[in-house]
Write a structure and sequence with these properties.
Order of helices and strands: HHHHHHH
Structural class: mainly alpha
Largest sheet: none
Helix content: 55-70%
Number of helices: 7
InterPro entries: tRNA-DUS-like
């Protein structure tokens, strides 16, 4: 497949392929599934962090995916990569990417919801 896009996947099916594997492409930029087309990986990265916060995703899993994105588009030896590697919590990642207010909002509402059960 020439490119990890929905268009590229459609082209493969038109050529007679019975299936398409996009594991790495989806890991590097999940917008490959968007009918509107790919969006910048930086935007996907921020949205992934927000979803990880919302779903209280495991920090190891979140960091793994972020590192894969960074390795594909940039370098883990740059300050961003090093900071992701050092992060120990979702709060650390939220601070790194300027999502502290969102983290506090989700965390506060999660605590309120748990208290109402």
């Amino acid at each position: 497949m020439e490119e990890f896009t929905l268009q590229g996947m459609d082209n493969n099916f038109l050529s007679g392929a019975s299936s398409v594997m996009v594991a790495r492409g989806a890991l590097w930029n999940a917008s490959v599934f968007s009918p509107e087309g790919k969006v910048p990986w930086e935007d996907v990265k921020i949205e992934y962090i927000r979803k990880s916060i919302l779903w209280d995703n495991d920090i190891k899993s979140t960091k793994h995916t972020l590192k894969e994105m960074i390795m594909h588009h940039s370098c883990l030896e740059l300050p961003e990569g090093k900071a992701v590697i050092k992060s120990e919590t979702l709060a650390d990642l939220a601070k790194l990417y300027g999502e502290e207010k969102y983290y506090q909002f989700v965390r506060g509402n999660r605590l309120l919801l748990k208290g109402s059960w």
